[in-house]
Amino acid sequence: MSEEHYYLELCENPVQFENASSVNNVFFDEANKQVFAVRSGGATGVVVKGPEDKSSVAFRMDDKGEVKCIKFSIGNKILAVQRTPKSVDFINFIPDYPHLEFSQECKMKNASILGFCWTNWNEIVFITDQGIEFYQVLPDKRSLKLLKSQSINVNWYMYCPETAVILLSTTFQGNVLQPFAFKSGTMSKMSKFEIELPVVPKPAKLNLSERDIAVANMEGSCKKTNVLKLNTTGKFALNVVDNLVVVHHQSTQTSIIFDIKLREPDCALNVHQPVLPPRSIHPYRIPLTGPSAVPSQPPVPCELYSSSWSVFQPDIIISASEGYQWYLQVKLPPTVNLLQDKGKLIDFLLRRRDCKMVILSVCSQMLNGEDKGSLPVVATVFDKLNQVFKEYLEAEQTYTVAMESGPSRGSTARERPVRTQAVIDQSDMYTHVLSSFTEKKDVSHKFIIAVLMEYIRSLNQVQITVQHYLYELVIKTLVHHSLFYMLHQFLQYHVLSDSKPLACLLLSLEGTYPAAHQLSLDMLKRLSTANDEIVEVLLSKQQVLGALRFIRSVGGNDNISARKFLDAALQTADQMLFYTIFRFFEQRNLRLRGSPSFNPGEHCEEHVVYFKQVFGEQALMKQATV
Amino acid sequence: MISIFLCCSPRMASGMQEKQYTPSLLSFFVYNPSFGSREGEEEKKILFYHPSEVEKNEKIRNVGLCEAIVQFTRTFCPTKPAKSLHTQKNRQFFFEAEDSFWIVMVVRNPMVEKPNKDGRPPTIEYQEEEILDTVYGAVLRECYSMYKLFNGTFGRAMEAGGVELLMQKLDKFFYRYLQTLHLQSCDLLDVFGGIAFFPLDKMTYLKIQSFVNRVEESLSLIKYTAFLYNDQLIWSGLEQDDMRILYKYLTTSLFPRHSEPELAGRDSPLRPEVAGNLLHYGRFLTGPANLKDPEAKFRFPRIFVNTEDSYEELHLIVYKAMSAAVCFMISASVELTREFCEQLDGLVGPQLTLLASDICEQYNVNRRISGPDKEPQFKFIYFNHMNLAEKSTIHMRKTASVSLTSVHPDLMKILGDINCDFARVDEDEEIIVKAMTDYWVVGKKSDQRELYVILNQKNANLIEVNDGERAMDCFTTLKLSALQGVMTASV
């Protein structure tokens, strides 16, 4: 199988710990993502490994019986250990606090503790078969204070650390779930809900176990109506990675992924089909370490989907027997070839975290080679990308406006919109896709132009201003293939929007395409901020009268340099033209200063001399006499 | 420069029973002097002669005369021999279409027949100054362009089948074409030979681009596409010169032929046919009239383009849905089948129908914005040499039979005269003419653009119209209001 085959993999640097054995018990705390390896009840050492090195701790504690559950409070402040069904023991890990263990029994009589969860650095919830008890730990006093308790029959429980919500399974069948939320000393009961059971067993028995439920945080609201179509039976386990639900199926040794947000078009209910065909996790090899390892020895393949695997939310897989804790990862590049429908593929990729380069490679791929997409497909992809781009720009705009108008009363402080990788702008597209695509020799220029126009159309459709370099690409391609008439038509309909750089580019084309001169001047005129440029262009073409007429029409004739115009007129070697221009400036002088003669600052001495030479002294305009 | 002329019409109203004759075609012939250079073989020079019933010796005499005039004038200017010969009764136009191939058109001058008393024969007064060289010279060149569009060059015909083939082709083409020449209604627009562009917003234009590109991609046989709406061009994949003559053919011949039956209620374009859940109005203007007809022929007119270099022969498929018409051009070496036409119909029909209604909607929005149609205070003709864009509020809708103008022929003649003046110099110019009957005519040439305005203001006086600012003003107002449509497209 090639690398392209697998879209799921285990992370390269797993957390390693001593594997479970008769003398070593292994625990995992989902809240802190810590693995506890407890040797001989703690007497020969407890090694705690977390996702980062700094959360790893090693210590020893007295062996007071078999450890059933062991967890640190948030920030490794207090350690809680459950050894009996009635009580939980605590050890302070705060420096300068007494280290002696202290213990707390559950309040309810005849109840047995199912487990406990830390909801804060010093707040803990006991879950018993008869209810829940919410305590505050007072480490300095080595005692606990009951904050709240609630009586309820509990089959099993589940804790979601991100939201500090505990789900309790109640009723005889276990399918009614009661959530409780905890927040700084308060406990609130949320509305319960029922899980529909596909078959109601007779006689009734506990039917829903914690193995069937996974609580995860996903972007956006996850409606209960989302149904994942597994199309198979057997033992499943769930992970959530990059907003995808990954379902592992042990008996077939494969996993499938679901994208809750991907809409199935022909379904009123959100019944989801797997996005991609089932695939196994990428094979994983365990490097041999320790004294027995020989450098030349190849790493041992790791048994995937092993029965000793435990899966935790959101993306954790633990193999207790081998002593590894991995994070599950989704590899995006292999998905590109597994999803044939490019529109669907882009939808899928746009919701993934590290999607930019993959999306850009999809774009390149659809423009080149055998797998070339048709124009409607290209258009669909561009439209999807630009829609996301536009939404980001709008959010940014709204934010800027809100910031400029100052913090208004009542409105919550806005957060600057996050630019995710899914925001693919014109420069990304230009740098990674379009500029190399237009250089391709084996692609017809017709297709290149069609693609560029499609991109420009797509940007226009969502009212995004097209960047000048895209126009330049269009013009370069058209000019390269001498398609001047096409270029002319595009400009005629303002497909290539006016700008000074574009006007200059056109001006430079005049040699090969004379009409570009007019196009360029028209554009400068429409810009109405380029009057100086227009005068320069006209003068360089020796259209002195035209330049003068133009500057007069925009009302700038009092400020122009007489010398510049006289020079230009002199160059045409047309004496009548020189006369006309000279006379014009004499009249201007008269009007502005009451005298037709030029100011020394205007540096027109040589022109006056020339004028006298050609037309004679008497031709000079006379000072108006009273 | 601003020049002012006072112009008096030579046509004085006098006698009641005067009869006016418009210019008409006297003869039209094609010859090549190198084909019958030996004495007694002069007839071989003549490749086509209209009217054909003219006696052989007279044909030879007339051709010989033209040959002699051209030869004679060559001695004065070898590169620019005479282009026309003015006589009292008629005017002859010479045009060397291809190397040594000459086309000559003889036009009878307009004339007035004045009845005389006492049973004497009426006096005929020829108005030899009433027709313009520029106009009829252009008409003649257009005759050749139109021939070339449908038949290719004379040279190619010679290569393919010698003089015989060429004569056959000339005969076949001009026999019909000359009947459609309406010399009495030729004017400045013939000189320009321009293209009217349909004003359109950027987004709709991009949609059309997208449509054209997609069709060309899925039907890869298509080499070129042109898109028109309301007989105005929006997109041409053909080069400018080829498009110019194709546009002429479409708007003065093909479209009017098809719109007249539509207007008359026959051959309704409404097709109650469902294709992909969408009722579409697409139909072929060339080729099969009805795809369902088992007898339908899948033959399309052939056209020749890029005759200067690649010399391509193409099938011309014209397909129309509502007011949108698309020309698809396909290499003539490919045989077009029923399957292809059905595929094209199925693909283009629904899309084009949608596009046409999009454009129509956009067009109506724009019209609403620019306000209701008011009778403007002036009429104008605008032409841009760079992109051949033309716009005229003087000309009514063109039909196959005749082009109608809404102003007096005298005014049209003045426009033609101003145009001749403009052609003489390279510089920007402005000419103002006071015509009879309270009309003022303003012509302005700026860079490659020409604008002619006819004002009818009883109280306007020379000073008012001559006022430079006002004339400019008039020009800019035009740009802003009446020309808005054209200007949207920056034509």
Automatic annotation (TrEMBL), chain A:
Species: Oncorhynchus kisutch (Coho salmon)
**Classification via InterPro entries:** RMC1, RMC1_C, RMC1_N
This protein is called Regulator of MON1-CCZ1
- UniProt domain Mic1: residue ranges: 352-599
Biological process (GO), any one: regulation of autophagy
Q: Which PANTHER family match?
A: COLON CANCER-ASSOCIATED PROTEIN MIC1, REGULATOR OF MON1-CCZ1 COMPLEX
Residue ranges of the Regulator of MON1-CCZ1 complex N-terminal domain? 26-144
Q: Which Pfam families match?
A: RMC1_C, RMC1_N
Q: Which GO terms describe its cellular component?
A: late endosome membrane; lysosomal membrane; Mon1-Ccz1 complex
From TrEMBL, chain B:
PANTHER family per the UniProt record, alphabetical:
VACUOLAR FUSION PROTEIN CCZ1 HOMOLOG-RELATED
Q: Which named protein is this?
A: CCZ1 homolog, vacuolar protein trafficking and biogenesis associated
The chain positions of domain CCZ1/INTU second Longin read 222-347
The residues covered by the CCZ1/INTU/HPS4 third Longin domain are 374-467
The family this protein is said to belong to: Belongs to the CCZ1 family.
In which organism is this protein found? Oncorhynchus kisutch
Biological-process GO terms, alphabetical: vesicle-mediated transport
Q: Where is the CCZ1/INTU/HSP4 first Longin domain?
A: 26-152
What InterPro entries does the annotation carry?
Ccz1, CCZ1/INTU/HSP4_longin_1, CCZ1/INTU/HSP4_longin_3, CCZ1/INTU_longin_2
Any one GO CC term of the record: Mon1-Ccz1 complex
